[in-house]
Hints:
The complex is a heterodimer. Chain A is mainly β. Helices cover 0% and strands 61% of the residues of chain A. In chain A, strands 2, 4, 5, 9, 10 and 11 form a 6-stranded mixed beta sheet that branches. Chain A is globular. Chain B contains no helices and 11 strands. By secondary structure, chain B is mainly beta. The relative contact order of chain B is 0.33. Helix content of chain B is 0%, strand content 54%. The chains are: A mainly beta, B mainly beta. The interface between A and B is medium-sized, with 21 and 22 residues.
Amino acid sequence: KNEVEQSPQNLTAQEGEFITINCSYSVGISALHWLQQHPGGGIVSLFMLSSGKKKHGRLIATINIQEKHSSLHITASHPRDSAVYICAVRSEGNYQLIWGAGTKLIIKP
Amino acid sequence: KAGVTQTPRYLIKTRGQQVTLSCSPISGHRSVSWYQQTPGQGLQFLFEYFSETQRNKGNFPGRFSGRQFSNSRSEMNVSTLELGDSALYLCASSLNWRAEAFFGQGTRLTVV
């Protein structure tokens, strides 16, 4: 079992829909990252969380430390949100980043 | 403030050759990490440097090596290239190993 599990693996939705991507982890962490990767490769850091909730524009990230679970929400989704969304946790011990497999999101107009 | 810069962006090499990739972190960042991304394996950690010292190393063969200079710029080297080394190599910089990581655009290496 992977230390960081994301679901779903693939998600296709219509423009305007509310999107939720989930991340569960099994290790002790100091922080959790949500990142976005567009075709072409570059990775953009969206959020770094250690507790509670963060919001940036239409993106909201939440984390429940007790349940070892985080969610990334996108409100009023748009085709430009189409990308791979990756959850990564920074482990408590050596602070190394442990990566989820990513969720490929496609938003259709 | 300039972001993380990786050079070159694209590279084609033949089997058996060696390659050096470069990463210039955000000004003031002292931690640089390297990752390999392949379609089959996803993102895998290569190594992390902080203030010219290797802090962590992933599970890669000795053909993969790296270093960090006093200005925090980092290089990674892959010797005796194999077809399976074809991948996107990503570099991330952060203030230190606990802080938020910022990524470069990556170097896409193709080994033929």
